[in-house]
Each structure stands twice: as structure tokens, then as C-alpha cells.
């Protein structure tokens, strides 16, 4: 069994998949803590579906041709249209919510629907015989085993961005997440922080969606953080557990996918779900154990 | 040179949509005074505190603390918010909440000197036993003490409290006022407290502001808590009258 595992890891595609999965789990684990504690779990779904609309627009623009020269090969991907598309969607969600009396889930629901509608329209406009370098099914369900070297460059850059934003601002983000009004009285620019959080989430989700798929994206953002919440006694612990649960479920899920010859996205999410079930039982035992 | 007042509010007018919540509020509060803000529900008392904190900008007029714009000196202010529905799902201990009063951000790790100061502040409010407790396990009264420790840990020059006795039993309420008076004696701090209890305003405050969207009275408790002034602010003073005048 161990030898088989070592054999599998020898393959470059598997090493790339493991690395991409771990990097994404770290980003989503860090962000997921704030998403879950701010009750924004629907944001992952909403922005992943915005990525669908953005990828559709990007593909159309690329096919219409010639808007980027051959020397910019790395950037000749629909992702580079999807990124600003998702970013603008995220900031629009925050702006509409701040300037109306609509709740976060309602606002996200509206943008979610519009983005899917746009995506369906853009993809329907692509001629059936057109040559595009990705499959719409991969976009929906992910293709972590098909990660290329260039994807790893993009994912690494996104992780760097995420770390640069989240680590120095972690304390202020945590304070504003605990109580926005209290943080404001202490001079924390909570509104600016929230826009920064939404913007960072947009970039992370747009890039991660390509690998893990739009449909399963929300799971990466929510399940590890929710499991961590059940175990943690502090926000710092929750952040650490969220990253650890995300990384371990990714590794286990990926290896399970190869062994069982089933889609990797589903085994990763199911691994997360198993850990969530375990933490729920542990938390239940802690609560009811202490009561009795 | 004359020292600026601890809190100066000049013709502050706040409007939320069509509703004028505060109208032309003007008063000065000197350092070391204990102000009780009283008034019926919806009188704009919490909004006035938020103006003093710089959280709400008046559409006309202004507020200043120690001669500087409200909101520009958070380090000199201790704020105890109204006891609201607390997010029980936030993983945090009493210690961490008190340390936010020192750091003005959420602590990942609490350093030893911070722990010492937080423990001293919790001791001061009679809650040192709560230091390691999760916030989710605290009662309303215990939580209020932790918020008070958080406000006092930085030794503020002015303490603003929004209905601090809500959800607190009679003995704890008595302890709270005794503690505030002790803190004021030790530090000459200024205290601004919203209360619904006119007897508390009468016996603990050195100044009272009777508010109902506009100032109905401001001055010494004995002068301001008159039947006429309360009648004007509350419309009817049945219960309030009984508390205030015994």
C-alpha cells in the first residue's frame, strides 16, 4: 500500500495535483475562517458562479482573437478575464449590500443568478467547432489531476497575494469580524477591510475554481473552517485547524481518487465531509459530556 | 490656556432618512464629571454616544473630545457597548476580549505583559475568575463585566457606557456603579453613561442630560430631574417619577 502510494507520487501530474491542492487548501482555509464567522458561506458559491460567467466571457473574447500577443502566452487564458469579472462582482455585492437594506445572502443570490445567466449565454455563443483549451465540464467539476505547470505559477502567485493581505491584517479582520462597531471605535477601518476581504476572496475563488470546479468551490471555503470552528477555542486555533483540515482532506481525497478511479473533486469534498462529521461528534461529546 | 472640555457637543444634528434623531444638541462636559444621559426609548441616547465616539457623523454641528474631533483619539476612550445578542459561535475567551482593549486588534497570541494587565483589569471588575472562560459560556452579567474590563484596561480618560446595567442583577448593578466611582476617584476620568434608571442618575451622576431628540435639560441632577423637565421629555412620568422622587 505504502509502496503504491510512493509510486503514485512519482508521477509529475500527481505531484502537481498535490501541490495545487495543498496551496488552494491553505488559501481557502485562511479565508474560510472569516467567511464562516461573518456568515458569508454563500459567498463561495456566488463568486465561483461569477467565475463561470467570467470564463465564458474570457473564452468568447479569446476566440474573437488577437487581443493578446503570442509573447503573453501565460495570459492567453480566459482566467485573466474571469479574474477582473469576479473581482468586480465581489465588490459590487459588498457595495449593494452596504447601500441598500438587503442582506448578504439576498445580494449574493442576485449576483449568483446573473453570473450564471451570463455564463450560459456566453458559452452558448461559442461556435461548437471552436477550439478552446479547456472543457466546460472541467470548469464545473474541476480537474485537479490536469493541473499544468503554468497553473501552478498562477496558484502560487495567488497564495502569495492571499498571505500578503491576510497575515498582516489578521488581527484587525478578526476584531472587525467579532464586533464591527467595537472595532470602529478603536479606529479600525472596517469598511475598507471588508472590501479587501471580498476582493481577495474573489481572486482566490476565481483561480481555485479552475482547479476544484465551480460546483465544489464553496465546500473548500466552508467545510474546513466549519469543522475547525467545532474544535477551536480561539480564532487563531480556528485558523490553524481550518488550514490543517483543508490540507489533510485534500491529500487524502486526491490519493483516494487515484486508488478508486473516481473524480478527485468529489473524493476531496467527501474527505472534508468525513472530517466534519468527526469534529461534529467530538464537539457534541464535549458539550454534552461537560453538561452531564 | 484653558483646558478644552472632555466632551464638547455643539449643535449636533443627526438625521436617519426622514427622521431627525438628534436636533441641535449642545453641551460641554468637563474632565472628571459623571454624566448620566436619560430619556425615553428612541430618544437618541445611543446615537449621541455614537456621535461622541465618531461612529456617527452629525449632518450639522460637531462633537469633540479634549478639543480633537470625535473618533480621532480612540486610545483615550473606553467604550462599553449595549449588551446585544452576542455571536455565540465566535471562538474567544474573556482574556482575548480584554486584550483587544490594549491592542485594538484581535490577538493571535496573548503576550505575558498583556495577560498581566488583562488579569488586573478583570480583577478590578471582580471577574478575574472568568479569564480563561469562553465568551459563549458567560451570562449577560458576566459578559458585561468582561466588556467593562476591556474598556478600563487601557486606563482611558473618558469612559462611555451604553446602558451597562441591562441584564445585570441588582447586586451586580450596585457593584458596577461603585466600581465606576472608584475608577473615577483614582484617575479623575470622565464618565458618560446612558441609563433608564432616574434614581441612578440622581444618586451617582454629577451631571444629567435629559434627552428626547433634543436637550430638555442639562445640569446638576437636583436641578434637571424636576417634574416639569421629565414631563416635557417623557410626556408622562408615572414610573419614572416614582423612581426619581421616591
Provide a descriptive summary of the structure in words.
The complex is a heterodimer of chains A (292) and B (246). Chain A is built from 12 helices and no strands. Chain A has a single domain, classed as ABC transporter involved in vitamin B12 uptake, BtuC. Chain A is globular and about 60 Å long. With 292 residues, chain A is mainly α. Chain B is of the alpha/beta class and 246 residues long. Chain B is 37% helix and 24% strand. A 6-stranded mixed sheet of chain B has the order 6-7-8-3-9-10, with helices on both faces. In chain B, strand 9 and strand 10 form a beta hairpin. Chain B is globular, with a radius of gyration of 18 Å. Classes of the chains: A mainly alpha (292), B alpha/beta (246).
CATH architecture of chain A: Orthogonal Bundle
Helix and strand run of chain B:
EEEHEEEHHHEHEHEEHHH
Q: Class of the domain at 7-85 and 157-245 in chain B, according to the CATH hierarchy?
A: Alpha Beta
| Arithmetic mean of pLDDT of chain B | 90
Query: Mind telling me which CATH architecture of the domain at 7-85 and 157-245 in chain B this is?
Result: 3-Layer(aba) Sandwich
Question: What attributes does this structure have?
Answer:
heterodimer, A: 292 residues, mainly alpha, ABC transporter involved in vitamin B12 uptake, BtuC, 12 helices, B: 246 residues, alpha/beta, Rossmann fold, six-stranded mixed sheet, four-stranded antiparallel sheet, 9 helices, 24% strand, globular
Q: What is the element layout, followed by pairings?
A:
The complex is a heterodimer of chains A (about 290) and B (about 250).
Chain A: H1 2-10, H2 12-37, H3 42-64, H4 79-99, H5 104-124, H6 136-141, H7 149-178, H8 180-185, H9 190-212, H10 214-231, H11 235-260, H12 264-291
Helix pairs in contact in A: 2-7, 2-9, 2-10, 2-11, 3-4, 3-5, 3-9, 3-10, 4-5, 4-9, 7-9, 9-10, 10-11, 10-12, 11-12
Chain B: E1 7-16, E2 19-29, E3 34-38, H1 45-53, E4 60-65, E5 68-69, E6 77-80, H2 94-103, H3 112-124, H4 140-152, E7 158-162, H5 170-187, E8 190-194, H6 198-204, E9 207-212, E10 214-219, H7 221-224, H8 227-234, H9 238-245
Parallel strand pairs in B: 3-8, 3-9, 6-7, 7-8
Antiparallel strand pairs in B: 1-2, 1-4, 4-5, 9-10
Helix pairs in contact in B: 2-3, 2-4, 3-4
Amino acid at each position: 500500500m505504502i509502496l503504491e502510494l510512493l509510486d503514485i507520487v512519482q508521477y509529475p501530474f500527481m505531484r502537481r495535483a498535490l501541490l495545487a491542492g495543498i496551496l488552494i487548501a491553505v488559501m481557502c482555509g485562511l479565508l474560510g475562517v472569516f467567511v464562516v464567522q461573518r456568515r458569508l458561506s454563500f459567498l463561495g458559491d456566488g463568486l465561483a458562479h461569477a467565475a463561470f460567467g467570467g470564463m465564458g466571457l474570457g473564452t468568447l473574447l479569446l476566440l474573437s482573437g488577437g487581443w493578446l500577443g503570442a509573447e503573453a502566452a501565460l495570459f492567453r487564458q480566459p482566467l485573466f478575464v474571469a479574474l477582473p469579472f469576479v473581482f468586480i462582482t465581489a465588490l459590487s455585492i459588498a457595495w449593494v449590500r452596504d447601500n441598500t437594506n438587503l442582506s448578504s445572502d439576498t445580494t449574493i443570490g442576485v449576483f449568483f443568478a446573473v453570473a450564471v445567466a451570463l455564463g450560459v449565454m456566453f458559452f452558448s455563443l461559442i461556435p461548437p467547432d471552436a477550439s478552446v483549451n479547456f472543457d466546460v465540464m472541467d470548469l464545473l467539476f474541476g480537474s485537479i489531476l490536469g493541473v499544468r505547470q503554468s497553473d501552478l505559477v498562477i496558484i502560487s502567485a495567488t497564495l502569495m497575494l492571499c498571505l500578503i493581505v491576510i497575515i498582516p491584517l489578521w488581527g484587525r479582520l478578526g476584531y472587525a469580524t467579532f464586533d464591527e462597531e467595537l472595532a470602529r471605535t478603536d479606529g479600525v477601518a472596517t469598511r475598507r477591510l471588508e472590501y479587501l476581504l471580498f476582493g481577495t476572496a474573489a481572486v482566490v475563488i476565481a483561480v481555485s475554481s479552475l482547479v476544484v470546479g465551480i460546483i465544489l468551490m464553496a465546500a473548500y471555503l466552508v467545510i474546513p473552517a466549519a469543522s475547525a470552528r467545532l474544535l477551536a477555542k480561539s480564532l487563531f486555533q480556528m485558523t490553524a485547524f481550518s488550514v490543517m483540515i483543508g490540507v489533510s482532506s485534500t491529500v487524502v481525497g486526491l490519493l483516494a481518487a487515484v486508488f478508486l478511479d473516481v473524480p478527485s473533486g468529489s473524493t476531496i469534498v467527501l474527505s472534508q465531509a468525513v472530517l466534519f462529521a468527526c469534529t461534529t461528534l467530538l464537539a457534541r461529546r464535549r458539550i454534552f459530556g461537560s453538561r452531564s | 490656556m484653558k483646558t478644552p472640555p472632555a466632551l464638547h457637543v455643539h449643535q449636533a444634528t443627526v438625521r436617519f432618512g426622514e427622521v431627525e434623531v438628534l436636533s441641535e444638541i449642545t453641551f460641554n462636559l468637563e474632565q472628571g464629571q459623571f454624566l448620566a444621559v436619560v430619556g425615553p426609548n428612541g430618544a437618541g441616547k445611543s446615537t449621541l454616544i455614537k456621535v461622541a465616539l465618531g461612529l456617527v457623523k452629525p449632518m450639522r454641528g460637531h462633537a469633540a473630545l479634549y478639543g480633537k474631533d470625535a473618533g480621532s483619539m480612540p486610545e483615550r476612550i473606553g467604550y462599553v457597548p449595549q449588551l446585544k445578542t452576542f455571536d455565540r459561535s465566535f471562538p474567544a475567551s474573556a482574556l482575548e476580549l480584554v486584550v483587544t482593549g490594549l491592542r485594538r486588534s484581535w490577538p493571535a497570541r496573548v503576550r505575558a505583559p498583556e495577560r498581566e494587565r488583562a488579569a488586573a483589569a478583570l480583577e478590578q471588575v471582580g471577574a478575574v475568575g472568568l479569564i480563561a472562560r469562553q465568551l459563549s459560556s458567560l451570562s449577560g452579567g458576566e459578559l458585561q463585566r468582561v466588556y467593562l474590563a476591556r474598556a478600563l484596561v487601557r486606563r482611558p480618560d473618558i469612559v462611555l457606557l451604553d446602558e451597562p446595567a441591562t441584564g445585570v442583577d441588582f447586586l451586580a448593578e450596585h457593584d458596577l456603579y461603585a466600581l465606576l466611582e472608584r475608577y473615577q476617584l483614582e484617575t479623575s476620568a470622565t464618565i458618560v453613561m446612558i441609563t433608564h434608571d432616574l434614581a441612578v442618575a440622581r444618586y451617582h451622576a454629577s451631571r444629567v442630560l435629559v434627552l428626547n431628540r433634543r436637550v430638555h435639560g442639562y445640569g446638576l441632577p437636583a436641578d434637571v430631574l424636576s417634574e416639569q423637565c421629565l414631563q416635557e421629555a417623557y410626556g408622562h412620568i408615572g414610573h419614572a417619577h416614582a423612581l426619581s422622587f421616591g
